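Board notes, transcribed. Complex of a protein with adenosine-3'-5'-diphosphate.
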Amino acid sequence: MPFSSYFAANVPYEQVEKLTTSTGCSYIYSSSQPSVPIVGDWRTRYCTLDNSFQDVLERVHSFEIRKEDVWIVTSTKCGTTWTQEMTWLILNNYDFEKAKEIDLTIRSPFLEFNGVVPNVPHDTIDAADKLDSPRLIKSHLPVMLLPKQIWTKKPKIIYVFRNPKDAAISYYHHWRGMVGYTGTKEDFMQLYMDGYVNFNPFWPHVLDFWEMRHEPNVFFTSYERMKKNLSSVIKDICHFLEKDITEKELTQLVDHLSFDKMKDNPACNHVKEFESMKAAAGREVEEFRFVRRGIVGSHKDELPASVIQEFDDWTEDNLRPYNLTVEDIINYSKY
Ligand code: A3P
């Protein structure tokens, strides 16, 4: 039998049913240990993914890395798009015209997108492969499912954390608007905490990168830190990428990345991805804007107190072994 980089185990049927739109999903385990600079029991670590991802995982695993690549890796809805737009501009001499002209998903491909929507003519792995250097590539995969050469060629990786209460509520809207979820909000939140939604479980995803935050090729930051002081995160990322920025460029970039500007920027609203998801599903969905509320604390008026409490307990349970709080992670600064 040919070597497979992963193996899949069934997710309980009743959980798949609750997702209401899924064609089935599996727990994906890596068959080999990643050469990462952290200790982990990789045999027990899994990622929940729709079964449609299984066609792309092998190609992702053997994807050819270039040392000069820059990777944006996040758990879903943690500010990926915002960070991609920022980083693309830093890497491309603040070419705002080109950024508006060409969709962000073309400038910075989502590597495993064909797992989200199979059978679309645009192959994101091919597109990423053919991109000119320095490539900016997005992935939501956890450490053990990323391309294996990431850990040997060591390109620069930017990891963005977000408070999971806000990320989960944002993901709920994403699933309603983009995937077509019709279940209840409470069910979705439970499924999220229990790790049944694509790319979860959340905490192991975050904590592996947290453990690697001091590695020279890893930059770990948070959505909340970007909201609090975007200029300072931009300067840190410029430092990390060894790129210059003038005061004028910084002012222009902060303005370009403001919520109001990005909300109305068609190149950053995943319009093409949305269209292909709608076409693949053959359905109409409710009006949905990818750049949605853009605030810290959106869970406060969108989740009932009982669910917020469950999230807090779940977070505490997951962070206790690391002697960490969410605030520690949010406020971390590499420089
Ligand atoms: P909300 O749904 O809470 O508004 P991702 O790109 O990882 O999928 O994250 C999407 C989230 O980032 C959404 O959160 C979106 O509104 C927010 N976002 C995108 N651009 C932003 C910006 N310029 N400022 C603040 N938040 C932004």
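The pocket of adenosine-3'-5'-diphosphate is lined by residues 74, 77-82, 166, 170, 173, 257, 259, 262, 291-294, 298 (CB under 6 Å). The chain has a mean pLDDT of 94.
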